């Protein structure tokens, strides 16, 4: 006779913490990356604005 148990139990426990300790400079690096991306976006938008300005001046002549 085969004894079959119903597998009605939760999955094994997996710890939620990381195996390696968190990098102390991680948030600083993240803030620097976000700040540089925002600065780059502002520079691109300023370049587009200046380009449109000079294009309009060139088309008016």
Keywords:
61 residues, 0% strand
Number of strands: 0
Unreliably modeled segments: none
How many distinct helices?
Answer: 1
Characterize the biggest β-sheet: none
List the quaternary state of the chains.
single chain
How much strand content do the residues show? Answer: under 5%
On the 0 to 100 scale, the average pLDDT is: 84
Question: Percent range for helical residues?
Answer: 55-70%
The rough form would be described as: elongated
Measured distance between first and last alpha carbons: 98 Å
Give the helix/strand class.
mainly alpha
3D architecture notes:
This protein is mostly helical. The protein has a domain at 25-61. It has 1 helix and no strands. The radius of gyration is 29 Å and the shape is elongated. The mean pLDDT is 84.
In a few lines, what is going on in this structure?
The protein has a domain at 25-61. 57% of the residues lie in helices and 0% in strands.
Topology:
Elements lengths: L25 H35 L1
